[in-house]
């Protein structure tokens, strides 16, 4: 596992390497003005500049050249990957926060229900909360009792969630919507065919699915996009259309065979679904 700070000529003044910090490693460095050669780091790197006076930082990143003045509190965010040479023109006081990508993705998946996560490259930016968390984590290096670890974990979690919420691009997982099984819908259709002339209630349909009427109605709407009443009426009107096309029965006979209270009730329901009356539909098909 390669850390960019391993290329520095001097070791870190402070590090959390030996501590039980999950997913985050901190290093505090004082380095002279220098140029760091091209390098690779696997972890995401959040860099906090603490130098008392502004310093000029330059970096060649592919075809892009970055040059900015970094002041106390300025941050840089560098996702894991390959980087070109970087240089600074004054002694630098920096806090390095290496964030494990797997740890970040686990938090995103388990706590935020995210399916995809990507941190952006930010050469220079300001964020008061991230700066404060970096300085507090530096102060916490060296404390090892249980309460300190809980405090540190709360800070590292806050830091990771803040990065995800305010800087990462991500996609949420599609919500799982419970649905009725195809076998249940088939059972309902079979019942409708056998009892076309009967009054079909939600309770009857729910019993075919072994569910309460309330739970069934909710799942049925999520599965078909229609309420049970709309589904039954639609099914009966489609059957009525077949019989009207075949011209095999009178309007009253079709109404009675499909369980409508009166021919007028049948005609009104037919017009709501088809946009025309049964007679107009039949004439149009003649």
From TrEMBL:
Domain HTH araC/xylS-type: 186-284
UniProt keywords, alphabetically: DNA-binding, Transcription, Transcription regulation
Gene3D superfamilies: Homeodomain-like
Source species, domain of life: Bacteria
Name by which UniProt lists this protein: MmsAB operon regulatory protein
Pfam families assigned: HTH_18
Single GO MF annotation: sequence-specific DNA binding
């Amino acid at each position: 596992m390669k850390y960019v700070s391993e290329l520095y000529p001097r070791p870190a003044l402070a590090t959390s390497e030996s501590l039980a910090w999950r997913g985050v490693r901190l290093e505090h460095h004082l380095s002279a003005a220098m140029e760091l050669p091209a390098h690779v780091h696997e972890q995401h790197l959040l860099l906090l500049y603490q130098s008392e006076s502004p310093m000029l930082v330059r970096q060649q990143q592919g075809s892009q050249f970055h040059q900015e003045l970094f002041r106390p509190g300025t941050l840089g965010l560098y996702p894991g990957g390959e980087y070109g040479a970087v240089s600074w023109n004054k002694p630098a006081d920096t806090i390095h926060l290496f964030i494990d990508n797997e740890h970040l993705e686990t938090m995103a998946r388990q706590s935020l229900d995210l399916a995809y996560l990507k941190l952006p490259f930010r050469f220079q930016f300001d964020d008061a909360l991230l700066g404060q968390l970096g300085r507090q984590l530096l102060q916490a290096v060296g404390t090892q009792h249980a309460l300190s670890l809980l405090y540190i974990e709360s800070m590292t979690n806050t830091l990771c969630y803040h990065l995800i919420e305010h800087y990462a691009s991500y996609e949420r997982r599609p919500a799982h919507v419970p649905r009725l099984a195809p076998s249940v819908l088939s059972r309902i259709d079979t019942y409708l065919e056998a009892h076309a002339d009967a009054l079909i209630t939600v309770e009857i349909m729910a019993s075919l699915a072994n569910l309460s009427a309330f739970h069934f109605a909710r799942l049925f709407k999520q599965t078909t996009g229609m309420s049970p009443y709309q589904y039954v009426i639609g099914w009966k009107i489609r059957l009525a259309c077949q019989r009207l096309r075949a011209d095999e029965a009178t309007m009253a006979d079709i109404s009675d065979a499909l369980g409508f209270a009166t021919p007028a009730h049948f005609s009104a329901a037919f017009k709501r679904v088809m946009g025309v009356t049964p007679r107009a539909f039949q004439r149009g098909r003649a």
